[in-house]
Amino acid sequence: MNPAPPWSTNSNAAATNGLIQSLLTGGNLINPSAAKLSVSGASSTTNQNYKNLFALYQGLSALSSLAQSASSSTTTVDGESAQQVDKAFQAGVQQVQSFLSSDPFSGFQVFQGTTFTADKTTSAVPTATTANYTGATLYSGPANSVIPAFQGDVQFGMTVTKSSGSQTVVNFNLADMGNTPRTMANVLNYLNGQLQAANVATRFSEQATPGTPQTITAGGKTITLPDSSPNQYALQIQGTTAEQVSFSAPTTDPAVYVGQTSGITSSMLPATSIAVPGFTPPKPDAVQQLVKLDASSTPIATTSANGQVFKQTLGSNVSNVQATATAPDGSVYVLADVTGTTAGQTIQGAQDVALIKYDSAGNVVYTRTLGAASTASGLSLTVSADGSQVAVAGSVTGNLNPGSTSTTTASSASTTVPQGFVTVYDSQGDEQWTQQIAATGGSGAGVQANAVAFGSGGMVYVAGQVDGAIPGGRSSGGPDGFVEALQATSVPLNDGSGQSQWVVTPTYTNQFGSSGVNRATGLAVSGSSVYVSSVQNGDAVVQQFGQSGTNSNSLTPLATRDLGSLGGGGVAGVAINSDGSVIVAGSTSNGALNAGTVTQPYVSGEEAFVASLAPDLQPAATDTLTYVGSGATQTATAVTVSGGQVYIAGKIATNPIPGTDQTSGYNGYAAAVDPQTGQVTWTQSITGMDNQDAPSSIAVSQTGSSVLDQLGLPSGSINQANSQLLVANTSVRAGDKFYVKSGANGPLQAVTISSNDTYKTLAAKIERASGYSATATVAPGTGGNVLSITQAATGQQVQLLAGPDGQDALGSLGLTEGVVSSKAAKATALAPTQTQGALPATTSIKNGYSLQLPSDMNLNSPTAVKQAQSALANAISVIQGIYQNMTTPPPSAAANSSGAVPQYLIDQLANYQAGLARLTGA
Fold first, then answer.
1. Is residue 533 part of a domain?
2. Among 79, 576, 777, 836, which residue's Cβ finds the most Cβ atoms within 10 Å?
3. Residue 46 in this model has a pLDDT that exceeds 90
4. Does one domain contain both 519 and 411?
5. CB-CB contact of 693 with 635 (8 Å)
6. CA atoms within 13 A on the CB side of 815
7. Of 231, 248, 265, which residue sits at a domain end?
């Protein structure tokens, strides 16, 4: 006789309520010893298997009940809060993991995760060096045609630096071709002839992308139209790692880079909509873009009309472009928020920050994700004067480096209150250090770093807003602005390795504001002076901080200038012009700002403004104020300076609705303003999808546009070296970890990520942690090298388990939690709706079963609750299937007439014999 399972109506098993109460009070979820069942005549091993299986089932059922309670906003469990229920739920998941790790079953195994013959990372790391480079598309059409991009005055130079350090400059002028038609083949012959004559190994070639045939349906048949989409052509550089190549042009223009949103965002739509017959409401379709413009009244090199060089649409998981900045090498950096996998990097939480480096031709050089475990927003970006460092700042929930022993510094703070953060990378995208800024008190809004700037001597300044008080600051009672100086020093390690680590010390903090709402919006450094722009109680305010006494690390407030009420507008930021004047720009509905001589008058409504102030912020005859507007709503959301000009970006209302103050759309714009005369020396309108365009950032490279844009080639050096660090190429952070267990009884070994780990060093760590039961190899994959983990020839099965919440490295690397076995095959999960009598046998895996149960399940969001419910229902069905296999002979059993008698048959025969003895009174 088989014991009645807990899901049977005949079962005497205890209800799950007791287990839930035990779990909520910190007790046990799984207790096999509490089971009273005993199958007469069955071995003690079989009875224990039943007890363990039923205890596991009841534990999973209790967790499922907790998840069900969390799915209802009106349901509580014994009066416990949602946070307490989630904490108890996660503790229960850990108990399930520990129970299964103890290998509680005899004759078969039950694994928590999935099973596979090889576990491969989905995050790829690019090869160490890249010899070839493909430029932007410069022509679409028939082959052997004269290419428009090659026409006119086309001159440029290539500097080739050999590994020995010697340099060769090769100049190209297509006029040297005379009357030869400038087709791709002819131009390539000329270019490569020049390179050959200069004894250079690098060569140009053609990169042809075949057109896509168009298909149509006619008469119920699908017809493919030939040559419906023309081939595309680009120049390709066929290089060698022994030669570093850079490009230049004799004539250049300023290049303006604008980050923007194009299209309809969800925030533009009403919370509720009324159905109107015949009217289809719009749907959010917004995309994030990087636009490059040639900022000359007569652009010398463009690929489209009106000076637009390119308009790159960023990935579908990029939700916002927050900042842009140019570097001395001609590249441009973009700081964005991402909500999913970006550039092959799987993010850990709901939202992360991505730093994307482009060359001047619009090709991505690299992408770096911050690696936030929960959620993060990037808000500011700056590049050091020499281009060797890049700093990003914003807000993050949770600690970026819990338990880390890397070169990164982080504060310990609440995992739910946002903190400010600053992260500094080198020019190759390798993280140098991270500092978090936490607040105490307040209403829970925390800290947000809105601006960041480099100073001298390793100093980095950060400014933003705080709810509560940051260390060294004092709250004014409402949201405050703040500025903080961080001193970063590279200190040699004392371990004899010759390596060093960054030590970051907050050296100065000033928290400011009134009882109203205050926030710092911009930051600029000029010598020993630090300027902070802010909005304080609705006014535009700029403050100067400077050195105090003999302490070069200390700052003190020196001057404050209140420009007056913004009338609901905002301050885009502050910058230092080439003459030392302080530039403040933004948007206002106040036509009487207190900022000096008005060079261009205010018209009406909301307008952009540019104010030029004396370095000491005291009113001076040189102070000027320029309003930029024409009566339609015009904002300035970003500001920078270059070549003595002030560049602003924002949006302008279009298509005003007659008789109202509303508009049906906005165009984006970028403009250059002479702050002394107030004249707009250059401007460019940018249109977006659905008549909606909203620039959010602007950056300028003074010599960034040239004939190279026309050729699809970058200015400056072509990047040939790629970082191999895991913290650079995935969202994993130093200190993140996962666990490895070899065989059923092997110890649980942690594999912890270090700041200098590569796939090669990680492979060695995994093999050591598995006791060499696993083989980890690095091999080429899609987009770069990947890591593959298999069972060693003489090894045991290897389990991979997720790391602690907020520190798990498996997901960031793209590894799957589960069991690696040379004979793995997926177990069949039973449908949760099936009843006991209808359960088919679960497919075993080398005497094992896979519950496919993630160890990082939680109930902290509606999505997480649904995922937990689904995973638990799947795991419970597998448990039911195991019971079916224990009590039902395999279909092929009757055909076996020889060999050892299976244990299940011995147990059943013993049951039958015991029953017969009772019936006959023996």
1. yes
2. 576
3. no
4. yes
5. no
6. 32
7. 248
- Is residue 289 within 8 A of residue 260, CB to CB? The reply is yes
Let me know: does 486 contact 422? Beta carbons within 8 Å: yes
Q: Where does 282-374 have alpha helices with state H?
A: none
Residue 379 has which token pair? 């808000």
What the block records as the tokens of 329 is 């090498």
The CA-based angle 319-322-327, given to 5 degrees, is 125
Residues 88 and 159 in one domain: no
Of 431, 421, 433, 483, nearest to 458 (Cα)? 433
Domain check: are 430 and 544 in the same one?
yes
Residue 35 shares a structural domain with residue 107: yes
pLDDT in tens, 727-755: 999 999 999 999 998 876 788 899 999 99
Q: Is the pLDDT of residue 819 over 90?
A: no
Model pLDDT for residues 376-413, shown as the tens digit of each residue = 999 999 999 999 999 999 999 988 875 443 333 434 44
Residue 614 located in a structural domain: no
Residue 54 Cα to chain centre, angstroms = 42
Of the listed ranges 379-388, 665-674, 842-851, the one predicted with least confidence = 842-851
Separation of alpha carbons 866 and 350, rounded Å: 16
- Closest Cα partner for 108 from 152, 165, 50? 50
- Residues of the domain holding 214: 132-248
What per-residue confidence (pLDDT) applies to 836? 32
Could you give the number of structural domains in the chain? 3
Question: Has residue 810 been placed in a domain?
Answer: no
Based on the number of CB atoms within 10 Å of its own CB, is 780 exposed (0-12), middle (13-18) or buried (19 or more)?
A: exposed
Are residues 429 and 459 located together in one domain of the fold? yes
Residue 670 domain-assigned? no
Which of 276-290, 366-380, 847-861 is predicted least confidently? 276-290
Among 667, 662, 663, 596, residue whose Cα is nearest residue 627: 596
The tokens 């535009």 sit on which residue?
Answer: 540
Judge whether residue 835 has pLDDT over 60.
no
Q: Is 38 helix (H, G, I), strand (E, B) or coil?
A: coil
Identify whether residues 408 and 489 lie together within a single domain.
Answer: yes
pLDDT beyond 90 at 493 = no
End-to-end CA distance of the chain: 19
Looking at the structure, tell me whether residues 383 and 519 fall in a common domain.
yes
CA-closest candidate to residue 608, choices 580, 573, 641:
573
- Could you tell me which residues come within 8 angstroms of residue 620 by beta carbon, excluding any fewer than 6 positions away? 596, 613, 614
Least confident range from 116-120, 305-309, 581-585: namely 305-309
Cβ neighbours of residue 553 closer than 8 Å, sequence gap 6 or more: 459, 485, 487, 507, 508
- Which neighbouring-strand residues pair with 784? 781
Among 362-366, 849-853, 911-915, the range with the most confident prediction by mean pLDDT is 362-366
Residue 210 CB neighbours (<10 A) = 9
| Residue 442 CB neighbour total at 10 angstroms | 17
Angle at which helices 44-70 and 16-24 cross, to 10° = 70
**Residue 845 pLDDT exceeds 50:** no
pLDDT at 219 > cutoff 80: no
